[in-house]
Amino acid sequence: MLMSSARNARASQVPNYERHRPEQTLLYQLVQQHYPVFKSSLDDQGQSLPRYVQREFEDFLQCGRLEYGFLRVRCEDCHHERLVAFSCKRRGFCPSCGARRMVESAALLVDEVFPAEPIRQWVLSFPFQLRFLLARYPELMGKVLSIVYRILSTHLIKKAGFTKATAQSGSVTLIQRFGSALNLNVHYHMLFLDGIYTEDGHGKQRFHRVKAPTHDELNTLVHTLSHRIARCLEKRGVLERDAENTWLTLEEEEGDVLTQLQGASVTYRIATGPQQGRKVFTLQTLPGRENQADTNSRVANYAGFSLHAGVMAEAHQRDKLERLCRYISRPAISEKRLALTANGQIRYELKTPYRNGTTHVIFEPLDFIAKLAALVPKPRVNLTRFHGLFAPNSKHRVQVTPAKRAKSPINRKVSILAGVTRAPQSATAL
């Protein structure tokens, strides 16, 4: 079986456990100080966050704290003991649980899911209206993702010279809900086989690689995606179009504070306080750069949709593939990029500067809490999806994946990766 670099490293090194102390981090201190104030201000207005969002904050404040429960671990040889605090296992913004999930997910995908074939990342971003729609109605994410998978897999199969009756592809999609500015940004990171499989005369699966997509092909695909997705949403009655405009047809729900917070987060606006409705403050420390069209680039844009396919890992680049898996399954917040200004505002550094030179976003403390609340996913929403050859019900999965699992219900490891249900509290492993 193929082994990831992370697992090889763990096998060759002596483990050195150091207890995580969340109370010493800036993020914990900000939530501990300002979340009660934010919650109280909502109570004064007769509003409240959904219970699952409140539990996200409450459990985060208990995550990694010994006073809220721990596991006593004893070495069988030297009888040395350590106390390992329980973790919250939440999926919204906890950096500790998010980092552990990132490492476990990447190791699982590389060791047990992806075969030794080239893998390409396809990233699809949506217009603001659809980001809000998918965040508010997560059941639509699966419908839209099915459309995206069919279009991209059909493209690969036809490009290889086969038909859907004789060939299959496969992908693993991680649905990210955040952008680099702590904004709510639902988008798809799809790790696709950079080719297709066919069955030979002996019943074995044979891989056929396809060439990288051209700029013209990406343009055609993004146009097709936008029209097919819009048509699907029209049929479901949540979208209407005319010759010039497209708009959502959603019923407004009075007192739904989370919807207001999500709308502000999607559009980069301040959600609370005297500056409510204005654009989030930004800091520009670099000169802007021109947006020059490049016909050789592997990115295409149309009507707010963006399709990118410029990153791939060759069959022998398992280390690169694992880094890519870690990147797309990373937690929403990087504590290294979080800081306080001299006047008590919160400064968050962008992972990549914007074209206009923006490098940081600035939040008031209560608006920062509002941004965290908007990032919390609903319970039991699967943010990792397997399609094609990698799907749990694929009869060819046993021949293709390193784990050689036959068609069967999703096992426990994949359930943990998918995040379908919240497991009971357990000890922090990092």
In total, the number of domains comes to 1
What is the spatial order of strands in the main beta sheet?
12-13-3-6-5-17
Number of H/I helices: 12
- Basic shape: globular
Mean pLDDT: 89
What is the share of helical residues? 25-40%
Low-pLDDT ranges: 410-416, 418-430
Instruction: Provide the structure class.
Output: alpha+beta
Separation, N- and C-terminal Cα atoms = 25 Å
Rg on CA atoms, Å: 23 Å
Q: Which range does the strand content fall in?
A: 15-25%
Tell me the series of helices and strands, N- to C-terminal: HHHEEHEHHEEEEEHEEHEEEHEEEHEHH
Largest sheet: 6 strands, antiparallel
Protein name: Transposase ISCR like protein
GO molecular function, one term: DNA binding
Pfam families: Y2_Tnp (PF04986), Zn_Tnp_IS91 (PF14319)
Domain Transposase IS801/IS1294: 170-394
Description:
- By secondary structure, this protein is of the alpha+beta class.
- It has one domain.
- 35% of the residues lie in helices and 21% in strands.
- The chain is built from twelve helices and 17 strands.
- It has a six-stranded antiparallel β-sheet with strand order 12-13-3-6-5-17.
- Helix 6 (139-159) runs antiparallel to helix 7 (215-235).
- The two termini are 25 Å apart.
